Structure formats: C-alpha cells, structure tokens
Amino acid sequence: MNIIVCIKQVPETTEVKINPQTNTLIREGVKSIINPFDMYALEEAVRLKEKFGGSTTVITMGPPQADAALREAIALGIDEGVLVSDRAFAGSDTWATSYTLSCAIKKIADFDLILCGKQACDGDTAQVGPGISTHLNIPQVTYVKKIEEVKDQVMRVERMMEEGYEIIETPLPALLTVVKEINEPRLPSLKGLMRAKQAKITHWTAKDLTLDSRYLGLEGSPTRVVKIFTPPPRTGGQMLQGETQEIVEKLAALLKPEI
Amino acid sequence: MPIQIILEKCSGCSLCIKACPFDAIRILDKKAVVDLDKCNLCGACVTACKIKAILLEKPETRAAKPELKDYKGIWVFVEQKKGKIQSVSYELLGKARDLAQKLSCQTSAVLIGYDLDDQLDEVIWRGADNIYLVQAPEIANFQDEPYTNILVKLVEKYKPEILLCGATAIGRSLISRVAIRVSAGLTADCTGLDIDPQEKILLQTRPAFGGNIMATIISPDHRPQMATVRHKVMQPMPADKHRKGKVIRENFDSSLYKSRTRLLDIVEEIDNLVNLAEADIIVSGGRGMAGPENFKLLEELAQVLGAAVGASRAAVDAGWMPYSHQVGQTGRTVAPKLYIACGISGQIQHLVGMQSAKIIVAINKDPDAPIFKVATYGVVGDLFQIIPALTKKFKTQLTR
Questions:
Q1: Which tens digits make up the pLDDT trace of B64-75?
Q2: Boundaries of domain holding A211
Q3: CA-CA distance, A83 to A89, in Å (whole number)?
Q4: How sure is the predictor about A27, in pLDDT bands with cuts at 50, 70 and 90?
C-alpha cells in the first residue's frame, strides 16, 4: 500500500505566550513542531506499511524551514519527504492550500491512501483534508479512530462522532483524517534519526507542478483576514474559603441560576 | 511582493510591530522590515500604521468570480441524525434570522434525509422562511458524497448569499467539500457573525491558536459566504407557532445520491449520559482523581445535574476514561454554561478546550494550580470530600 501523509509545521501552542505590554503573541524562541494530530497520521502510515508493505511519503506546504518537520517524520519511519514551498503560495487559505497540495499529490500520482490529522492546532479549521479529497475527487472519511480491516482495496474504518462512532467502508484510493485515539505514536529510533539527517528532501516550487496560478496564495484564496485581535484573557474570579460544608453551601447558592 | 514598506514614509515608530500577531516585523536601520516567512498577510500592521507606510496588495482577480448580486438569502444546513434535527441547527436559524434582518432578506433551511415531514413545522417556528427539503431512503443518514452533491446542486440553483452550518463532525466534513466544489470562501468554527453595515458582507469571527487570538474573516468576492459555527455559542429563537413558511421539495436524479463510501453501522456509546458537545453542564476530572474508580464520584454529580462527564488528557492517557471524553487541544472543544474542573491542574492544552465556558468552577488541592487563573469560582481543597457533599447538596436542592 502506498501512503501519502500530509502534515503541517505549527508553533508549539502550549508555549505560546502573550506579551502583556503589546498584547501580541510572543513567537520568539517558540519551537516549531509537527502538528500534534499529524503525528497520529504518520504513525498510522508507518504501521500500515509494516503490515502491508509499500511506500510512505510525507508532504508539507510551507516555508523552507518546514524541512525540519519532514525530517522528523522520516525519523519516525516515513520513507520520503516532499516540501512544497514557493513565495507564490504565501497567504493561502484552506481553499488555496488544499488546491496546491492536491496538485503536488497528483504529481506523486501513485497512492492508495492519503492520511491527514483531523485538524491543525494553530488554525483549527479541519478543512484542508476534505479539501484535498474533493480536489482529487476521491472518497473521504473524517475523524477516523480505527482502521478495522483492509482487504481487496477496500478499507473498513470507525469514524468518531459526537455520540459514538460510525462504521464506514471505503474503496481505495481514499483520504482519511485521523484522531488521537487511532494509535500511540512511537518515538524516533536512533536509526531513524540518522536516516532523517541524511535524507534527501524533494523540493517542489510552483513551477514544478501543473497548476492554475490564479488559484494560488493570497490571490487564489476566497477568504481575507480583515482583523486580528487578542481577546482579553480570562481572569480568575472568587476563591471560596472555609470548611467543606460551608464551601458546598456557597457554591450551591452561586450556581443555582445555572442549573 | 504582496506586502511592502514604503521606506520614504516609514518613521520607524514600531506601531506595526506591536500590531503584528505573527512577530514578523523588525526595525532595521530605523525602518520596518517584514519577514515574509512569518508574515501571514493579515493586514493588522496596515491598519496600525498611522502614516500609511505599509502597502498590502489585495488582489481581486480570481477566476470564475460569480455575479455577486445574483446571490440572495441566508441558508442554514439543518443537521439531522437518525431523523432527529440537532439543536445546533436551531441555534444557527436563530442567528440567521438576526443577520437576515440586517440584510432585509429571507432565511432558508436545507434539510436532507428521509421521513422528516413531522419536524418541518418546528424548523419554521424556529426561524426558517423556506425549507429546501430533499428526501429519499438512500440518503436517510449523512454520507459525505451524496450530501455534498445535493447541497452543491441546491446552491447552484438557488444561489444563497450566505450558507451556515454547525461546526460538528458532519458539518465540517460536508461543508469543506461543498466550499471547494462551488469555489467559495469558508471560515471554520466561528464564534461571532455579523453584517458589515456598509459593504453588507458577512463578518466571521473565530478563535485561532487555541483561542489566543481572534480573527475576523470575510469572503468579499465569492458567494455564498460560508461558515461553520461553534455549537452552544448562538441563541436559538423560541418556537413561534404563528410563523409561516414555505416548503420546497426537491428531487434529484438518483445518480446524485450515490456514495463510494458505505455506512455500515452507527454505534452509540451509552456510557455517555449526555454527549459533551450538547451538554450545558460538564463535570470533568483530571490527574487529581487518582484513579479510574473515582470517576464514579463525577458520574454521580453529573447524573444529579444532568451533566456530561469530561476528562483531561492526563486522565485519558492514564486509561481512566475513554478518549471520547477528553476535553482540550487534542480532544474536544466545549463551551457549556457550567464547567466543573475536578483535580485538573489547567495546562494550556486543557484550557484552550474549555475556557469559553460561561462559568468555570475549579476544585483542586494545589492553590497554585493554573486552573484557578481562569476559574470563576475556585476551591482549594480535597475533592474527595467536596464532590460527594456537593452531589448531596444539589440532590436535595433540585428535588425540592
């Protein structure tokens, strides 16, 4: 089975801090990491390859430094890395991003499965995965928490919903977005780290792909950000003191209008 | 170059640096310099610059620009599961009414499924002027491809100006596909919607970076303007039984209803008293619960309150609760009226999943736990005493 995993490099949001003077995000010194949800997609790809053979390719669209994210994926056991990077892609929204990635995937051509994390933790849109499958006109299953069976180019998966899950069968090639429950990602092996260091990353710019330049970057993006602001941070309220029973009485009185 | 500093004008005042949410501007030789690898072309600096020394090219030429004025009305995709309309759809209809008044247009619901006739009145009472109804046995349950096909056809035929949908598992999967097919802009998981009074376009506000920043987004040149909206943020309007509406029944060729994927089964997990997304009250436990058996205390409290039970990543990773209960960055984002955090320290990855709750109660034995920084009411103490006492208290209070 040949698998493509789409990943995004994101700032480690757990470290994102707000500068109280300027009220802006402090990104200086904040590490870039692979989007946490994409780690599950990478792990699932490696597991499927271990089981069924084939090849795994990781692809990302981003600035040149996203190279590091691809190498990290290779250290985890992915075979090849492709960096799609060009100034022409700057300012892409989810429409333009999924278009560009789908063009790159068309160039890879030979695949049975595309895996994505359910969403990126910086933008939180969950739109690029379904966008790619639509551009490629292949079936999709989102929020996959388990791959139950793969047989004769048909895959049976469990899709997480609000009140349980659905069991869905899809022919391959297909695109899945995955949630955390699907697996527990491994740590990179020493051998993997060595391989990652030496790996040759394929670099594609707009010129390397067959695409319509009107759909790229800011120009190709239907949405525009018109304002960005920092919401006032939530502040702590009242601390309740006293013996257990006293506290319980106070809380019950305070919460009465809510229940 | 999409963004440019006019060096002759720039005074090096550094206002733009303060405005930039992406830390992409530096002062070099008393002039602002934009780091294009960090720049998101958001335009925050352009607004901040008092001397208009920053130029942001906003290209307007994208292929297949529709005739904008042909698009009219606000649509809500009404989500149903097993034939039951989901509450998020009524919230959206309420908001759509409000927006429709500002645009002097009509509100329409799109309802796809089977055997839904008994719920049409309710949809109208809750704000719809029209219902576009597509029914067939093979589309009784949601599947990505047929639902996408139908919605795309309806959009192409009736040309709505705005299309809203719940930011649910179904909504996000469906609407992402539709947006690509009809070449429209889509904004995810909005928490605020308004109409720009001059331009008469939809202003879509949403959190990013786990709620650390808010962005307002528009789709000026494409229609429909599409957005998914977070559950529990908008207010449904009370059912008005005098409201009248029109039902437009549409039938399409059955080839449109074909799906390459096949839905084999829908499994409901009954351990969930109330599902997290729907819950008005959530009782949630973390590492401080000290073991899986103690979640029983939370379940008892939840039962009394009609609440759902949540868990922090620590509790889920320890195997105390299933992943479906996890609240936080890698779990679910929730916005209940009341969130009771028990033995949860309040790591940022947890806070981003629940800090939009109206009221947060934190119970933790560590007075320095970061959860207290966001809690409306904080209690430093032993949760193993407080929770059972609280359960008992609410039980008597609520049965009285």
A1: 456 888 999 999
A2: 3-229
A3: 12
A4: low
B-interface mutation test, from A26, A241, A247, most B Cβ less than 10 A away: A247
A242 within a domain of the structure (yes/no): no
Q: Which of A14-18, B20-24, B202-206, B308-312 has the lowest mean pLDDT?
A: A14-18
At residue B61, the pLDDT reads: 47
Query: Which chain B residues have a beta carbon less than 8 Å from that of A255?
Result: 338, 359, 361, 377
| Statement to judge: residues B210 and B297 lie in one domain | no
- In this structure, are residues A230 and B213 in contact, taking their beta carbons and an 8 Å threshold? yes
> How many beta-carbon pairs under 8 angstroms link A with B?
310
Q: State pTM to two decimals.
A: 0.87
Distance of CA A74 to the CA centre of its chain: 16
Q: Say how far apart CA B334 and CA B347 lie, in whole Å.
A: 16
Which comes out higher in pLDDT, residue A58 or A32? A58
Task: For A236-247, give one letter per residue: b (16+ CB within 10 A) or e.
Answer: bbeebeeeeeeb
Of B241, B257, B273, which residue constitutes the final position of a domain?
A: B257
Asked whether residue A101 is assigned to any structural domain, the reply reads yes
State mean pLDDT over A6-23: 72
Q: What pLDDT score does B262 carry?
A: 97
Query: What is the β-pairing status of strands A17-19 and A24-26?
Result: antiparallel
What is the Cα–Cα distance from B61 to B83, expressed in whole angstroms? Answer: 43
Do B87 and B41 fall within a single domain?
A: no
| DSSP 8-state assignment for residue A56 | E
- Domain residue limits at B202: 68-257
Q: Which residue has the higher pLDDT, A47 or B356?
A: A47
Separation of alpha carbons A122 and B212, rounded Å: 10
Total domains, chain B: 3
In angstroms, the separation between the Cα of residue B15 and the nearest Cα of chain A is 10
Is B180 found in the same domain as B103?
yes
| Subunit contact B215:A225, Cβ cutoff 8 A | yes
Cβ–Cβ of B23/A25 closer than 8 Å?
yes
Residue of A nearest to B322 (CA): A181
The answer to whether residue A259 is domain-embedded is no
Longest dimension (CA), chain A: 71
Number of domains into which chain A is organized: 1
pLDDT at residue B344 is higher than 90: yes
Phi-psi sector, B29: left (phi>0), alpha (psi -120 to 50), beta: left
Contacts B198 to A, Cβ<8 Å: none
d(CA B325, CA B313): 9
Q: What average pLDDT is seen over chain A?
A: 92
Burial tier of B399 (Cβ tally within 10 Å: 0-12, 13-18, 19+): exposed
Same domain, B221 and B84: yes
Distance (Å, whole) CA B397 – CA B341 = 21
Q: Are residues B89 and B32 in the same domain?
A: no
